[in-house]
Design a protein that fits this description.
The chain has a domain of 127 residues: Rhodanese-like domain (Oxidized Rhodanese, domain 1). 29% of the residues lie in helices and 11% in strands. The chain has five helices and seven strands, in the order αβαβββαβαβαβ. Strand 5, helix 4 and strand 6 form a beta-alpha-beta unit.
């Protein structure tokens, strides 16, 4: 019996990581530019994957920069012209900065500059400052943004792949956050 358990453990340890639904998803060499709502890897090179309970515990112990990179809701194309449209308020992890566009695979230079500078200011230019990046479950935006922060040189980047859909059901509070937009006019 002990031999069977040891063999099973060895197989589990040697197996490649699986995505959220058990599908093996490899990290791309660069940024993901395919559909943003798809299976994501279970890892992020140079960073740490964290889940809801562990994230809550971490945030209770340490000061972190929490970044939400979800897209801004857009008015539905099929909506009748002139009809009022009021998007829902955006719920995030309390204390989050919401920086839409920072998780795109091909990021516009304006947003790249803004994201880099926002991280620099919010961390007081400390590359060892704890950073947590999230958006929605099964969404590549947060993976791309976490990878981008790692490539900027940040050494304590946590990726929360469960996103807000994993945070709320775990029983943790949310707060309404407003999207930050780049302010410079250069493209």
């Amino acid at each position: 019996m002990a031999r069977i358990v040891a063999c099973c453990l060895a197989l589990l340890i040697a197996a490649p990581p699986l995505g959220a639904t058990g599908t093996k998803v490899a990290e791309p060499d660069g940024y993901w530019t395919g559909p943003i709502n798809a299976e994501v890897p279970a890892t992020i090179a140079g960073g740490e994957v964290i889940h809801a309970r562990a994230l809550s515990d971490l945030l209770a112990r340490e000061r972190a920069l929490i970044i939400d990179v979800s897209n801004v809701p857009r008015r539905p194309a099929e909506m009748m012209e002139g009809a009022p449209w009021l998007p829902l308020r955006h719920a995030g992890i309390p204390g989050s900065l919401w920086i839409p566009g920072a998780g795109l695979g091909a990021i516009p230079p304006k947003i790249d500059r803004y994201f880099r500078e926002r991280l620099r200011k919010a961390t007081a230019d400390n590359l060892d400052h704890l950073i947590v990046i999230y958006c929605h479950e099964r969404c590549w935006l947060s993976w791309n943004a976490a990878r981008r922060a790692i490539e900027y040189g940040y050494r304590r980047v946590y990726w929360f792949p469960e996103g807000i859909e994993g945070w709320r059901p775990a029983g943790f509070d949310t707060s309404v956050v407003e999207a930050e937009e780049p302010v410079d006019a250069a493209g």
